[in-house]
Known about the structure:
Largest sheet: 9 strands, mixed
Number of helices: 15
Strand content: 25-35%
Radius of gyration: 29 Å
CATH topology of the largest domain: BirA Bifunctional Protein, domain 2
Shape: elongated
CATH architecture of the largest domain: 2-Layer Sandwich
CATH superfamily of the largest domain: Bira Bifunctional Protein, Domain 2
Helix content: 25-40%
Structural class: alpha+beta
Number of strands: 21
Number of domains: 2
Amino acid sequence: MTKDVIVNEGYRKIFLLREKGIEPFPRRFKTTHMAAQALLQPEGSRVIVAGRIVLMRVMGKASFAHVKDSTGRIQIYIKRDNIGGENYEVFRKLLNVGDFVGVEGELFVTRTGEKTINVKRLVVLSKSVRPMPEKWHGLTDPELRYRERYLDIVSNDEVRNIFIVRSRIIAAMRQVLDGRGYFEVETPILCSQAGGASARPFFTYHNVYKKELALRIATELYLKKLIIGGFDGVYEIGRVFRNEGIDTRHNPEFTMLEAYKAYADYNDMADLLEDIFYACCRVLNIESVIYDGKKVNLKVPYRRIYLPDEWKSECKEDIHEVLKGKSFDREKLEKLALRLNVEYSRELPSAKIFERIFEHKILRKFNEPVFVRDYPTAITPLAKCKEGDEALVERFEFFAGGEEIANAYTELNDPQDQKERLQEQMRQRNEERNQETDILDKDFIEAMEYGMPPTGGIGIGIDRMTMLLTGKSSIREVILFPLLKPTTSDEI
């Protein structure tokens, strides 16, 4: 049958149910147990359970089916003599896999040892029109799985469990932060300008103010303003939006945890990250994962290495050779890229060339969890310089399974230095045409001029962390509804 014929058959059954005086979409149904709870009750107990029919074995005068809710599935036994001939015919001829039903009856154990509800009352709760995908032959196309995630979850318990794990990871993070005295806040998504990270923003338009607004690319600047305002520790878990490419590691909207603590530095943020990982692994009862075909040991503590040492080891020169104070030495950076066979173009910004060298020569080494510390000031305008070395800042990136999971700073709190750093970013934007530099946010500089205490800050990618802890190498597997390429069916 064609899809249209199948859909029409579904609507025909809805019509037939109503002809029999049965409303296929009632308003509510009171249950006594979830499926998992019912399975724990002793034989002979009376239970009322509701859920979706996921399996039907229809016979002459008695049938079996499986009903599934969010806790699991339970078998039901429907006999003509128990529910009446007319009701049994409704079940047999007008209900299908995918329909929601409510059942009431007593528990018994079948000859095969399966606890089952002997149904005395059956209520139609929602009649599906379209057929459910078959377990083994349904949603196998990844694009279709992401586009119709609701069906993916129904037909694949592993997919559903990924998002249960994701929720437990976020809950564990909150527990650690709340226990350390951090205060959870919410900051604006719509901003006059998008700062706090090196990325292109999305824009929208406010009709009343007649003004273009940007969707935030980070929560950093608002959270720092709260530190200035007197909160000693704040954090936010929320969506950020970056107008960038889409691949297995990137989605234009993603979830970040950002946390800031007064009187702390990037070493304290490394300790915090280890506490968070320890809590998440304990909640999930894991000590290691297989990620991208390799085992990753997640036991804390994690190795802490010094980027300038790694740079010298792999690039065979001091990192300061490609740095000129708080900016890059473009000529020397290009020479190094050429010597290392790292592709670049004259139009590519210096920061991007540095990033390519780092990925080509250093990042490939990291599979086990590692903190890479102390980055060039030229690519980190919001972090405090190393004492006695203005070319480097107190910053770490945390990698595991070869993926960046977190980024942390000893936050810059000198307003004059911050202004000069952001002016350098604007130079890179204008002269090198790098549209992903930080912007000069005068309002943030003004806030800093009222005094900002020494502060440590960290950003953790929730999606990347979930990928690691579930062993999934595509970000689309851990986002419920990832952004997908529009299809003709998306057009109205």
